[in-house]
Amino acid sequence: MSAELILRSKELFARVFQEPANVIVCAPGRVNLIGEHTDYNEGFAMPFCIGKYTVIAARRRTGATCRITSAGVPGAISTFPGDSSLSPGPEGDWTNYVRGVVFGMLPMLPGGSCAFDAAVVSDVPLGSGLSSSASLE
Known about the structure:
Blueprint: H1 3-17, E1 23-32, E2 47-60, E3 65-70, E4 77-81, H2 95-105, E5 116-122, H3 132-136
Parallel strand pairs: 3-5
Antiparallel strand pairs: 1-2, 2-5, 3-4
């Protein structure tokens, strides 16, 4: 895990949201040695992690609004509801991966809603078959 990615995510969060993050999470990219596209079809797969990561610096908010920014989209903050009014963003919007996770978690959350600010930094190459979307989720 790269200390540089952690530092970059914390700095991005503080710059965009004007306060420090109090949660840092990370997940690696991965490759499938065997079983590409078989795992979700009840087949066998043998994935393994690589030395590239997605790091998210975050902080819980009050209310039901989620705000997210990414080093890959400088200066942009995407906002979406963290409650039953949540819907997909425009086709191809990278935040749809995050929206999907929030949507899946809503039934398990107290009050059926959540709110957070998050800053994403990653060195997992996009579109390279290294599961950058899975590491974000």
